[in-house]
Amino acid sequence: MALSEFHVGFYSQFVFPWLCDLALDRPCVARRRRELLAGAQGETLEIGVGTGLNLPHYPPQVRRLATVDPDPAMRRRLERRAAASALEVERHTACGERLPFDDNTWDCVVSTFTLCSVQDARQVVSEVRRVLRPGGQFLLMEHGLSPEPSVARRQRRWNWLQCRLGDGCRLDLNVRSLLQEESFQAAHMRNEHLERTPKTHGYLHIGVAVK
Asked: CATH number for the domain including 43?
């Protein structure tokens, strides 16, 4: 293995999961997770579970909880949080572009800070729509393209660097357009900037999309 490949592998396996927790395990983010996940219910699937930061916030009305993530580097932190969860957690190693579930399976699908990092966000949202039952809810909290032209220019300018440092994470995802293209009805969707976060990284889309 070349030295550069070793550095990339070490970063992805050990450094990036730690950075994810450092950036996203903050009180201001936890509060938003708790508010968003209060709407989860029934049979719920979380895509891009990562290190499991959502797990403590699922409410009792969730009868079944399954998670999907393709990245084995996140598994150690995820296993600790799954063991501490009040819910039994079914864990699946798979990518969001090919969810291993039948059509119309889930009452609720959850995605937090995931769509920015997948290879094909449109295909992931299409898969979410496929596995949701009619009337099912897609709960999401994602960062994406800012409506402020000066901020959007910086997001596009520095996107290449973010993709490298963020293990594929991009800054310029247009979340609202993506939902519309996949025929989701946006309900109770709000936009805001995350506190103590650069505007290029902290423009949030939070809320519910309905199949």
From this structure: 3.40.50.150
Does position 8 have pLDDT exceeding 60, yes or no? no
Number of domains in the chain: 1
| pTM across the whole model | 0.91
Q: In angstroms, what CA-CA distances link 85 with 26, 55, 71, 72?
A: 19, 6, 20, 20
Average pLDDT score over the chain: 90
DSSP string covering 89-157: EEEE---GGG-SS-TT-EEEEEEES-TTTSS-HHHHHHHHHHHEEEEEEEEEEEE---SSHHHHHHHHH
Side chain identity at residue 11, one-letter code: Y
Name the nearest CA neighbour of 143 among 108, 117, 105, 182: 117
Range of the domain at 161: 3-210
Mind listing the pLDDT tens digit for each residue in 129-175?
999 999 999 999 999 999 999 999 999 999 999 988 887 899 999 99
Q: Of 96, 93, 74, 77, which Cα lies nearest the Cα of 85?
A: 77
Integer Cα distance of 43 and 124 in angstroms = 19
Look at the block and give the residue holding tokens 């409506």: 147
Examine the pLDDT at 38 and tell me if it is beyond 90: yes
- The shares of helix, strand and coil residues in the chain, as percent rounded to the nearest 5, are 40, 25, 35
Measured in whole angstroms, the distance separating CA 194 from the mean position of its chain's CA atoms is: 15
Categorize the per-residue pLDDT at 4 as very low, low, confident or very high, splitting at 50, 70 and 90.
very low
